[in-house]
Write a structure and sequence with these properties.
Elements lengths: L1 E6 L8 H11 L3 E8 L8 E4 L6 E2 L2 E2 L4 E8 L2 E6 L7 E8 L2 E9 L9 H16 L5 E6 L12 H13 L2 E3 L9 E6 H4 L3 E7 L10 E7 L1
């Protein structure tokens, strides 16, 4: 089973076909894209996304079809959960071979570390966690705008806040040891118990977007 995440930088590098081809090559079962667009379509995937962005929204000019987060999956989806901000976070249950997985895709800090927006996003998502996560197998994936190794970004406090939340809900940040990355895949300890984890990255040269992508493979 493969879970992947990638920030597409609003497709500003105009390499949609290369990005599409890379996503096909990765062949993830669950794929969380951030700063993306409804124009990125993959065959045989179901898409659950945040709301389409208006062309002029929060001081930014968006192109037709832009969305902040989408969850693409080959598996069946069912219950979708309301999030604190329907433009910034999306959450749905997915029927995986290892049981129901509640996938929460998000960007924390849609304007990077700019305040007060960063803290508003972080606190809003923590409220979602409290409402949605108890008693469920969880995957959180996307652009957290927080590093967990290497240089603290945007702050030690932000890092520690999420570390404490992950501990509280019995989660493991599988990408925490990748230095200086802000894109992460976090999974319930119960979900990954007795499984092998392999993580690979792509777009290290950042020719397709300004973020490196990560794909996690789970095997028994």
């Amino acid at each position: 089973m493969k879970i992947a995440t990638w920030n597409l930088q609003r497709l500003e590098k105009r390499k949609n076909q290369q990005i599409h081809d890379k996503l096909v090559d990765i062949d993830a079962d669950i794929l969380v894209l951030t700063e993306t667009s409804s124009n990125i379509q993959l065959d045989n995937y179901t898409c659950v996304s945040t709301d389409l962005l208006p062309n002029n929204f929060e001081g930014i000019k968006y192109s037709d079809g832009e969305i902040r987060v989408c969850i693409l999956t080959k598996y069946k989806t069912n219950t979708q959960y309301k999030t604190f901000d329907s433009y910034t976070a999306v959450c749905t249950d997915i029927e995986t071979p290892y049981g129901i997985l509640t996938v929460y895709g998000s960007i924390i800090g849609v304007f990077a570390n700019r305040q007060p927006r960063f803290n508003n996003d972080l606190n809003g998502q923590l409220t979602d966690f409290e409402k949605i996560f108890p008693g469920r197998q969880i995957c959180i994936a996307g652009d957290f705008n927080i590093t967990f190794s290497g240089r603290p970004w945007p702050s030690k406090k932000a890092r520690q806040t999420l570390v404490e939340a992950f501990t509280n809900y019995g989660l493991t940040n599988t990408t925490a040891n990748i230095a200086d990355t802000v894109d992460h895949i976090v999974l319930s300890n119960d979900f990954i118990a007795n499984k092998q984890i392999e993580i690979k990255t792509w777009n290290g040269d950042k020719k397709l977007s300004d973020h490196v992508g990560h794909v996690l493979t789970l095997t028994i």
